[in-house]
Structure formats: C-alpha cells, structure tokens
C-alpha cells in the first residue's frame, strides 16, 4: 500500500500548483484580451483620424488646385491685357513709319516734278542742282535714319531678351522658394514614427 503522504498530500500539492497555474493563465488571458481590445480601440481611433486627415488633405488639395486655376486664369487675362497693349503700340509705330515713308516719297516726288524747264538756263541749272542736292541729302538722311532705326531695334531686342531672362530666372527662384517652404512645412508636420509596445506581462 502506498503511503498517505504519497496518495493524498502529494496529489493535493499538485492540485494546488495546478490551480495556481490555471489562475495565472486565466489572468494572463484576461490581460491579453484587455490589451488586445485596447490596441483594437486605439487602432480604430487612429484609423478614423487618418481617414479624416486624408479627407481634409483632399479638400485642402482641391482648394489649392482651384486657387491655382484662378491664379492661372487671372495671369492669362493679365498677359492678354499686356499683349494687347503691346500690339496697339506696334500698330501705332507701324502707322508712324508708314506716314514717315509716305512723307519722304511725297517730298521727293515734289522735287522731281518741280518745273526745271522754265526760266533762263542758269535758273534751270541752279534748280536742277538744288533738286539733286535735296534728293541726295534726303537719300543720306534716309540711310542714317535706317541705320539708327536698326540700331534701336537691335537694342530693343537685346533689352527684351535680358528682361525675359531675368523674368525666367525670378520665376525659377520663386518655384525654388515654394519648394523649400513646402519642405519645411512637411518636416514640421511629419508624423511621429509608430512603435508597437514590446512589453509582455
């Protein structure tokens, strides 16, 4: 026969240890379930906030696009306004040049049509020389005018090219400034890095 100690006491000790182990495991399961539920609730809240943030970002982006389109439309309107002004100036300049050329031709024509055949031979000779000098002078003056006009147009084109280069350089700088400012804003609002809790108790 086995001893009482062996049959009862040892078995009772074993049952007591098993009970303690069972309670410990039950408590651990409850804690794990509670932690899991808390993580699930937190994840739900974070997911909802993320969804709301994404929706807000879409709204903000759409508003920014609308503003950008408004600015583009305004810029096109301004460009057309200035382009129209420049076109009017060009037309006025062309009309002035046309009137100028017509005036030159009229004066030359007057000189050629003047009556050189009347009066004494000395008068005719003097008038002929006067007409030739007038036409020669006018031809030289026209040549000088064309040279000065070409110089002015060349200088004007150089100024336009310089102005356009300065404008494009400023536009590039403006875009760089925007990029740098957006980078700072993104860095400022960069989300924290999520790290899962590693404690297991």
From TrEMBL:
Gene Ontology BP terms: defense response to virus; regulatory ncRNA-mediated gene silencing
UniProt region (Disordered), positions on chain: 105-124
Entries under InterPro entries matching the protein: SGS3
Superkingdom of the source species: Eukaryota
The protein, known as: Uncharacterized protein
UniProt source species: Zizania palustris
Taxonomic classification: Eukaryota, Viridiplantae, Streptophyta, Embryophyta, Tracheophyta
